Protein 1
Amino acid sequence: MRNSDYFRNKKITVVGLARSGLACANLLYSLGADVSVTDKQDNAATCANALKLESAQIKFELGVHTQAFIKGKDLVVVSPGVSNESLPLKWAQEFKVPVIAEIELSWIACSTPNIIAVTGTNGKTTVTTLIGRVLEAAGKRVFTCGNIGNPFCGEVEKIAVGDFVALEVSSFQLEKIETFRPKIALLLNFSRNHLDRYKDMQDYLRAKKRIFMNQDKSDYLVLNKNDQTLKSLDKESKAKIVYFSESPDINPNQAAVLAVGEILGISKEIIYRVFAEFKGVQHRLEFVAEIGGVRFFNDSKATTVDSAVWALQNMSSPVVLIAGGREKGNDYNTILNLAVQKVKEAVVIGEAALQIRDAFLKFFPVEKAGTLPEAVNIAYKKAVPGDCVLFSPMCKSFDMFSDYEERGRVFKQAVQELIKNGA
């Protein structure tokens, strides 16, 4: 690894003990740091991860944050889901302890400069996955990281100098970078999102733009030519600008991947073969089952209205929509023009249920459910043969689930229960 002694003997606290926090803590321990972990949640998931810490020397606290875990530390590493208003980050500022993101830690230790970082409001997981597949098909050794599988820091120790990293990057992670510098940075699109965290759209855009802040003329910035907000960023970057644009033959996600392939000198034949073989990613418009002529689709990854719009655009049958979760500043009215054409009824769940219901109720029937399995049962009763039940939440998962993956698994389990019970 690069800079293998950088963290040695430093007192470092990791905030958050979900998947990325666990990987951070274990990596730092292996690099010789004095590691502590703090998480305000004390539940089955955090307790399970505490058991996966590689050493009893890694101190941790669950269900509470205390100043002792921040004061006197050399560094704080923050997990992406942690709010900027959380106590550990406020204390870090008070005690003048530097704070970095997990991807900054990984970048400092990573042996290869061949980082392809992907951000945007929608499509990050699909594009990152496709880039990884294209690189593999071209004979490259690649690690696909981020909100897919392992966090970046969970793979760093395995990555060699000539390897590639296809990295999904969120705006939350980019807020706390200092030196992170991808060889190729992609900005896929930009639309309303995360206004529960950012004061306005410009604030959200500033976070996204940090993906190219350390690039120079030897690097590449790939921008969506059809997104007016992103197209204008060419004047702010020192990197070589490459544009992508959808066409009748390829969608925007594929166009972005094609642009990366061309930068890397990978033949179109290889890239198009990967496109043809690609069956999609889990929890993104994933076909689950057909029961009594009703098809069920798991789109738990759809945490924005735009993502749900994309899902509805791909539905050719009447839709019973299941939506809801934790509100994030969405404007649900923006889906209505399409929803009135595609959706026959809706079932809403979670903290945003009433807000979504109020937006939809004038246009089609809406029923509120207490749990996701209950919503699946209600939706199936409303559907008739030839319909589809689409779970496309448009919201964050954290009101009821640990992440979108758990939420998607619960949806699929509920569908399987319908089959088991002879629905």
Protein 2
Amino acid sequence: MGKKAAAKKAVPKAPVVGDEPVRKVKKDSLFSKSSRNFRIGGDIQPQRNLTRFTKWPEYIRLQRQKRILLQRIKVPSSLAQFENSADKNQVSQVLRLLKKYQPETKAAKKERLASIAGGEKASGKAPAVIKFGINHVYDLVENKKAKLVIIAHDVDPIELVACLPALCKKKEVPYMIVKGKSRLGQLVHKKTATCLALTEVRKEDVSDLNSVAEAAKAVFNDVAHRKVGGGIRGVKSMHIQRRREMALERELAKKTGLIVA
């Protein structure tokens, strides 16, 4: 028996639109689409934001971990009060007053001492300037010589100034918590400063000092800071808690017969 002839493949017919068949147009290779290949040896990878994959220095990682921990765990009220700093208007008013009483720089002090050595008479009373240094400020508050105390909110370790607000309340010295120990340090020509104190001002600035002191007493001295800080859940933890609550609500609804299982 002879072999059967192989069946011919059916050639697809061209689609017909109206009476005439539609012919396929051959695309020019100059304008043809060429998909990129990003595998090894292929095209150059596009630029991506690799911030999440950056290995930060250890001190930055510790700062961020500490900030998250303080948000999660419960913080006692004596430490949580440092998160409630003065508002922008109060801070600007205080800084405007403190800038008038900045201590002299090293160059100014050298020039003054040189002028005294040259024969000029020095004034008997020392000028009124900002007092700084944690031990010095504590002594001024204990002796009730300080008229106004400014405390930084980000002192590390915070235990250095943790009892200073309570001491100011006991001695009835107005105090204020402001953001930025570096901002306080600039006023006394240092990198940072934990706290500052004003003991006296000139006659023309007495009214400004009284208004700032009254505002500080109303916001900080006369308010009982008993609010516990922290306890803020993360996003994932909040979603998990919400799903548990929804599951409990469904179970309760089934028990009461509102939903037929």
Protein 3
Amino acid sequence: MGTQARRLKLHNKLCEILGSNHVYYQPPESVKMVYPCIVYHRNTTRKFNADNKKYLSYDSYDVTFICKDPDSDIPDAIEDGFSMIRRETRYTAEGLYHDPFYLYYQGGN
């Protein structure tokens, strides 16, 4: 499975968790986002080798859930939805709550 196919699979899973299509991949400043939403950006690819061959490869993403509700259950659902995810510290900006995550994604989880 190629990088774009894995990313589209991730996108669909994030839409499913959120319960809407307000999921944005690397949105430009001009995009008017609808809240609650998930914004994600691609980072590097992490490769693991064994016996001088590529053994595993994971794409990494910065994923942020943004909403107006401080008690939303969506951040827990995001964390529970993936096996290789790290939750970062929540912050508030412009009256919106931001729950950031760092995610490794191979396409299967």
Protein 4
Amino acid sequence: MIEKSRTPFHWLLCTLLIGVAVEIHAQTPSTASPEKIYGLVIHGGAGAPAEKDATPESDRLYHDKIQEALDAGYTVLQAGGAATDAVVAAVNVMEDAGLFDAGKGSVFNSEGFCELDAAIMDGRTLSAGAVTGLQHIKNPITLARAVMDKSPHVLLMGEGAEKFAREQGFAMVPNSYFQTERRRKQWERLQEKKRNSGHTGYLYPNNPEAVGTVGCVALDKNGNLAAATSTGGTADKLAGRIGDTPIIGAGTYAHNATCAVSGTGIGEYYIRTVFGHNISALMEYKGLSLEQASSEAMKQMHDLGGRGGCIAIDREGHIVMPFTTPAMYRGFKLSDGHSDIELYGAK
């Protein structure tokens, strides 16, 4: 059998088909999805000293401790750990530092001792745990995590919270553990200021030293969000005062559908505006971006007379760190290689 020769038309048709196949392949999107961003953001409190009042030595101490906290949380995320574990790891570092208004180094209340609050929220399940009015728990955020994981409740206070802690095997520390010399001098200075002014109450919220908290928000490799916040409250606060930190939806909030938020500032205003949930709701119901929603929430809080800041991260890995005070110690570290630490205003 003699094979038929190929005509010029046949060759032309083959060439066109090959060209079409190449074009279709070139336009077909790759099935390989880009690697999702994960990472965390932390703050060491809004209302820190203005840059002109700080020293290079103190700045270095805060910078290094924020870096240590970022590294602690990021190590958890990088190993595939949960966002809830990462935020606890980061906040533990700051609670132990003796530098921040959380854990060791917390401010004194009007009666001269420390009362601590903390909260954590899991954006995947909307589970949350919080504690308030603690006087003997070394790491309040760890106890808040235990409330979330090992109790049917969300918020425990004072003696009841510490009784639960003992049942869970937590060691107690004396209140003096939290009381640093720097904070004692701050408290004595405030008492003298009240005596000289004839003021019989307490100076908050007009006290420029009254604000400060630590917090962390994280997005893990599985796309889950979490937020954690810990504080000693506000300097010279009334004994028994509860701020926004342990109020879920105010100073601490996380929801996988939107974002994770940790606030810092004059807590009464964060409670009144339901600050953290407000950011999430503006995103979910109005379709605002994280930047737009946080800006609107900050404006609403500020218009009432509040001040402070927040950190937040959304489910895509976008972050914000706005504040209205002279400074807010803050930093972030993301898996795309971006990271930074700042103490004062944007450079």
